[in-house]
Design goal:
Strand content: 25-35%
Largest sheet: 6 strands, mixed
Number of helices: 7
Oligomer: single chain
Distance between the termini: 30 Å
Bound molecules: adenosine monophosphate, magnesium ion
Shape: elongated
Strand order of the largest sheet: 7-4-6-5-9-8
Length: 393
């Protein structure tokens, strides 16, 4: 059995970043920037008003005194107004500050009588003026190559006038499930059957890696059906086969991979849950065989498939593994086995609590967990110990 470190190293050596592509900002959420992006417009782009009110020369304003209104400056057009001491311009939020003015008085702080305003408050220079470049300067880096694009970054890119962005390659993925006992949700269940839950799990995990082009094929334990699904799967960048990779008579995936001309690089990794994990290749397709038990499929996807996908979609090399966080263990825990054990648990308020049954079929406990604790073989922690956990959020 190969160690998880060696398995991951081999998987990562075997995959490459796909060529970048340009996508609309509306398709870029969760994708990875293909290159650095530098601001080409300052923010704000011009001095403008933070309030509806009156633009004035602060030094000429005294509480109780009047100023003469010389014009109106709405947002969206620059009327190139001039304001001299003793004068004011009606102004609205986002409108350019007239030449000569250096402050805006909120409309709530003035009383207007005809062409005059009477000021009810003190006025300071710069008040309610949003200065050009005070938020962001031209030339400032706003996004780094390999960085994930979130909603906030999308807004910033739009503020630069960009409608599209260059992101890492669009991975095309195929999921093939195997098992005579599996029934798609929504259909009636007969005795001895179970609902198929791995395809939706893996589909969601692919989406979390920024991969949205994912096909799904459900196969019975039938060699020719599996071979045919694998042939179609090999037309994708990534093929994930789940179930049927163990050592039983109904585990048909390994011979089917050989039959379709794929090479198996490694099989069986020393990790719990997830031991029967398989990695192979055919042409430029990376092939992952995951154990059918849902918790094993989940853990092995995160340990081995996720980093490979992230590399393919252009994530920075420092971002390939799950983020780590320190937490205080609520209960003592021990790994009596000879494989590293990934314990599912709940991370909250700095504490980690193992959740539910720690067995590879125990989907309910998995559904309640948001973090994994890795216990090395023989490792023991007492309650209250500080541990480093993998955050699944
Ligand atoms: P296998 O890896 O094919 O030996 O399957 C191990 C266990 O996982 C069995 O109890 C299967 O019924 C279950 N299993 C396999 N594939 C799925 C799936 N797609 N959805 C839910 N359970 C599955
Ligand atoms: Mg099976």
């Amino acid at each position: 059995m190969i160690t998880e470190e060696a398995a991951l190293a081999h998987v990562l050596e075997s995959v490459r970043a796909l060529p970048p592509r340009r996508v609309s900002l509306f398709q870029a959420l969760g994708q990875f920037a293909a290159g650095d992006v530098v601001a080409r417009h300052a923010l704000p782009g011009f001095d403008n008003s933070a309030m509806d009110g009156y633009a004035v020369v602060a030094s000429s304003c005294r509480k109780g005194q009047s100023q003469r209104v010389v014009g109106e400056q709405p947002a969206g057009i620059d009327r190139q107004l001039h304001v001299a001491p003793g004068e004011a311009a009606r102004i609205f939020t986002g409108a350019p500050i007239p030449v000569g003015a250096d402050a805006v008085i909120m409309q709530e702080d003035v009383r207007r009588e005809g062409a005059e305003i009477f000021i009810n408050s003190e006025v300071e220079s710069g008040e309610f003026v949003r200065r050009r470049g005070s938020d962001l300067s031209e030339g400032q880096k706003i996004l780094g190559a390999g960085q994930r694009i979130g909603a906030q970054t999308l807004a910033l890119l739009a503020s630069q006038g960009l409608a599209e962005i260059e992101v890492g390659g669009g991975v095309r993925a195929a999921i093939v499930t195997t098992g005579d006992e599996l029934v798609p949700p929504g259909e009636p269940l007969r005795a001895g059957q179970i609902y198929e839950s791995n395809s939706v799990l893996l589909h969601a995990l692919f989406h979390k890696c920024g991969v949205t082009d994912v096909s799904i094929t459900l196969c019975p334990d039938d060699a020719s059906a599996i071979e045919s699904a694998l042939r179609t799967g090999l037309q994708h960048d990534v093929l994930v086969i789940v179930g049927g990779v163990s050592v039983g008579a109904r585990d048909l995936v390994k011979p089917a991979l050989t039959a379709v001309g794929a090479q198996t690089d490694l099989w069986r990794v020393s990790v719990k849950p997830g031991n029967p994990f398989l990695f192979g290749r055919a042409g430029s397709t990376a092939i992952f065989g995951l154990p059918g038990n849902p918790v094993s499929a989940f853990v092995t996807f995160l340990l081995f498939v996720r980093p490979a996908i992230l590399r393919m979609v252009g994530a920075g090399s420092g971002d390939l593994s799950l983020p780590k966080e320190e937490a205080q263990l609520t209960d003592g825990i021990e790994n009596k086995g000879d494989r590293p054990h990934y314990v599912r648990g709940w991370l909250g308020q700095g504490k980690f609590t193992p959740v539910g049954r720690q067995e590879s079929h125990a989907l309910y406990g998995l559904s309640r967990s948001n973090a994994l604790l890795r216990l090395a073989p023989g490792e023991t922690f007492s309650g209250g110990a500080t541990v480093s956990v993998l955050n699944l959020a």
